[in-house]
Amino acid sequence: MRTLFAFFNKNYYFFLFVILEVIAISLMVNNNPYPHTHFFNTSNQLIGNINSTYANVDDYFYLRRSNEVLLKENARLRSILESSFLISDTISYVFMDTIFRYIPAKIISNSINKRNNYLMLDKGRKHGIEREMGVVSSNGIVGIVVETSESFCTVMSLLHKESKFSARIKKNDQLANVIWDGKNHLFVTLQDIPNHIILEKGDTIITSGYSFFFPEGVLIGTIEEFDREQKSNFNTARIKLSNDFGKIKNAYILKNLQEKQQRQLMKEPENE
């Protein structure tokens, strides 16, 4: 403490000078309009820059949490979309056959360069995940859950030799099937297209809705090229996937809330 007093006593004139300078600047700023305005504009700009920098840093460190919040909100909004519950025309509304709940999940592992590719998601039985649930991303179809543990699940990717999904050509509602040929993770094959169907590059391919896994209208991709076989009743087309499986990070697991009723109805005719 004695050293501190000695320091102030030694530099008494300097501190007095600083105090008087501050008083003088304060009087000048407060009593003259132009310096007053300029001072506060400068200080506001400085404070704004500091706050902006802090916000950017804060956003960076909380980006992961923000993404999780957005995924949950997107899942909630998807689940309450009118299209998730009913279809309509200009006269009436009727319930669709299926109602899906969207459960957000993070992809923690993924393969694209094998003949049989799988993904692992950070949701499992404790989150209500079961086998044979469909999985989509914000860009389109991903695959189907094949195994679950308490906290994780394994998804058979669309990029798998056993994958076969019912699809529809959006412009004319023609049904077809989607398979993967095991060559390029950006493309799949659309097969069983009747040869009278006219195809064009860029035609949109969506899910048909004729399964327990996906609602109708989930994007699969667009036609890149197609073959016309004169000796066959059916043609094939190469589809460019809407999902780049090498880049997806997040997904939604689809819970069909009416699956049990559907499966029960399918069993009844078989038992007769």
* Number of beta strands: 14
Query: Distance N terminus to C terminus?
Result: 99 Å
Strand order of the largest sheet: 3-4-7-6-5-14
Identify the CATH homologous superfamily of the largest domain.
Rod shape-determining protein MreC, domain 1
Do you know the CATH architecture of the largest domain? Beta Barrel
Q: What fraction of the residues are assigned to beta strands by DSSP?
A: 25-35%
Characterize the largest beta sheet: strand count, sense, and whether it forms a barrel. Answer: 6 strands, antiparallel, barrel
User: Helical region count?
Assistant: 6
Mean of pLDDT:
77
Helix content percent band: 25-40%
Count the domains: 3
CATH class of the largest domain: Mainly Beta
How would you sum up the global shape? elongated
Which fold name fills CATH's third level, the topology of the largest domain? Thrombin, subunit H
H-E order:
HHHHHEEEEEEEEEEEEEEH
Category by helix and strand content: alpha+beta
Radius of gyration: 31 Å
In terms of per-residue confidence, which ranges show pLDDT below 50 for 5 or more consecutive residues? 36-45, 82-98
What keywords describe this structure?
272 residues, alpha+beta, Thrombin, subunit H, 3 domains, six-stranded antiparallel barrel, six-stranded antiparallel beta barrel, 6 helices, elongated
Explain this structure to me?
With 272 residues, the protein is of the alpha+beta class. The chain has three domains: 2-60, no CATH class; 69-156 and 248-257, Rod shape-determining protein MreC, domain 1 (Thrombin, subunit H, Beta Barrel); 165-241, Thrombin, subunit H (Beta Barrel), CATH 2.40.10.350. It has helices at residues 2-10, 12-31, 33-61, 63-80, 82-85, 259-271, and strands spanning 86-88, 93-95, 100-110, 116-121, 134-137, 140-148, 153-160, 165-169, 174-179, 187-194, 204-207, 219-227, 234-241, 250-256. It has a six-stranded antiparallel beta barrel. A six-stranded antiparallel beta barrel has the order 8-9-10-13-12-11. A two-stranded antiparallel sheet has the order 1-2. Strand 8 and strand 9 (174-179) form a beta hairpin. Helix 2 packs across helix 3. The longest helix has 29 residues, at 33-61. The protein starts with a helix and ends with a helix. The model is unreliable at 36-45 and 82-98 (pLDDT under 50).
